[in-house]
Amino acid sequence: MSGPRVLLIEHERATPAGLVAEWLDRHDAEVNVVPIDLGAGHDPARDYDLIVSLGSEFSAYDDHLPWIGRELELLGDALADDVPVLGICFGGQLLARALGSEVFRADEAEIGWFSVESSAPELVAPGPWFQWHFDTFSPPPGAELLARNHVGPQAFRRGRSLGLQFHPEVNVGIMETWAEVYLHELDEHGVDARELLERTRAVADEARAVSEALLEGFYRDVARLGDGGAR
Question: Most buried in the list 30, 53, 183, 213, measured by CB within 10 Å?
Answer without folding.
Answer: 53
